[in-house]
Amino acid sequence: MHTCTTYDSIQDVPPDVWRRLVTEVDFAMDRRLIMLQQRTLREQSRMWVVVVRDGVNEPAAIACLARFDLEIVNTRGWLSRVVGVAREVQRRFLKNRVLFVGLPLPCASNHLRFAARADKQMALEALDRRVQELAREENADYVVYKEFEGTDMGHVRLLETRGYLRGTLPVLHKLAGRFRNFGEYLGAIKARYRNQITRSQKKFAAAGLRAVHVTDGQEIRRRFTPEVHQLYAAVHAKSKTKLEFLPLEFFLELPDALPEHVAVIFVEDMTAGGRVVGFTLAMRANGIHYNVYSGVDYEMNERAHLFQSVLSRSGLCVFDRDD
User: How far is the first Cα of the chain from the last one, in angstroms, to the nearest whole number?
Assistant: First the structure.
């Protein structure tokens, strides 16, 4: 009989148990990153770690869970104000409570791991029983297991037998690193796409903008001011689907938490004293470069194709890895 232990904090999980279930090079399950998410999102979410043990009390699986209240509809203007008043009385008005088996950081990986010799079916069944119990305790409307890939289809099929429905969320942009540099990549793509990038780069330069690639943690913190955080807030506000809203605290602490993984491209307006008008924050791990968060001055974006230019310059960092 498999049993589960639920921990309110990753810090409560015995280190030896964690090491037996999670490898050192597992970026998605990096304890430093999970602790940072749990601490900085404490006002928006509640997170847990569940450890599954087998019949002889050996660790068989581990999973990270997060509960969020998601907007049912996007509201603007006077309707947004009405909803705000209603939520003073009923906090979850026009929201669905979702319990995720997985954490919010978009790193294309789930947060479920098994021991090498575990009976995965029994471990997953035990985990799901605990997940369902927790969903009832938290009054969740939905349970979602997220970020499963083709190699995880055995887990997905088992969950389907337990009443789950399979959904797909394809990657919006995926770029294979088979090119030696960004120029080689430009030469390989279709002419109309190349022309779009070239045109955006010319507008970017004509607007007096420059991109600065920063990896030093102290320099990232210096540049990441409350005004820069508002650029991220502007992008978040335009998102059709909203999950977490990362506070300034997260961006300031991330470079120290994972110094070997974090880089930020800041775009400065040199006609306005170097004011930052855009950024993209990326993480690199296991040979993969993830563009995870961005911020944009939308007025400048209209004039200078800022967003596309930022992504292009992030591509330069992917290819020119020694820069």
Answer: 53
Of 3.30.70.260, 3.40.50.720, 3.40.630.30, 3.90.226.10, the CATH number of 182-319 is: 3.40.630.30
Q: Is 7 helix (H, G, I), strand (E, B) or coil?
A: strand
Residue of 246, 225, 251, 249 lying closest to 236 (CA atoms): 246
pLDDT digits (tens, 9 = 90+) for 238-262: 887 778 999 999 999 999 999 988 9
The pLDDT value given to residue 113: 96
Beta bridge pairs of residue 288: 285
Mean pLDDT by 10 residues, the chain (323 residues): 96 95 89 94 95 97 94 57 50 76 82 95 97 97 89 86 85 67 78 86 90 93 97 91 90 93 93 94 82 91 81 60 45
* E-assigned strand segments in 81-233: 95-101, 112-114, 142-145, 209-214
Give the C-alpha separation, 87 to 80, whole Å: 11
pTM of the predicted model as reported, rounded to 2 decimal places: 0.85
Domain ranges of the chain: 3-161, 182-319
| Residue given tokens 């015995």 in the structure block | 14
CA dihedral sign, ordered 14, 19, 25, 27: negative
Q: Hey, what are 206's tokens? A: 């004509």
Given the structure tokens 């003073």, which residue do they identify?
Answer: 88
Domain 3-161 matches domain 182-319 at the CATH topology level:
yes
Secondary structure E strands in the chain = 3-7, 46-53, 59-71, 95-101, 112-114, 142-145, 209-214, 262-269, 275-285, 288-296
Between helix 248-257 and helix 31-40 the angle, nearest 10°, is 160
Q: Which pLDDT value is given to residue 83? A: 43
Q: What's the pLDDT at 177?
A: 65
**Are the beta carbons of 219 and 266 closer than 8 angstroms?**
no
Helix orientation angle between 248-257 and 226-238, rounded to the nearest 10 degrees:
110
Is the domain 3-161 a CATH 3.30.980 member? no
